[in-house]
Amino acid sequence: MLFLKKNQNLNRIVVPLAFFFFIGSHSVCAAEKLPVSVSILPQKYFVQKIGGDLVEVSVLVEPGASPETYEPKPKQMVTLAKAKIYFAIGVPFEKKWLPKIVSLNPNMLLVRTDTGIAKIPMTAHQHPVKKCEGSLIFAIL
Hints:
By secondary structure, the chain is an alpha/beta fold. The chain is 40% helix and 25% strand. Helix 2 (41-51) links the parallel strand 1 (34-40) and strand 2 (55-61).
């Protein structure tokens, strides 16, 4: 457990430092933003909050799409080829596509934001089926 805590603390330091290293080393003029790619929409929020007006964030998995079955579109591959940083989060499609993305853009910094984080397996969850005399009946999926 101590090892996990050390990795989490290290990750908290390394990820922002890597991000600011690239922003600082990137020649930014008034119209030029650092192209950054992320896997899922919630990551975009965090990257925009950290990078502000200095970044242009593109999201691969669009709202409503599944990270388990996602495949990049040709237009997204073009965007990835121009990205300076890619923030991976450990979603299923990355296992197949990250090697291809990195080979497409070997100069891009790949930041694995899930490094050192223990994932909790998902268990069956409940959905209400119907209401019977004031109480809900749940179905286990």
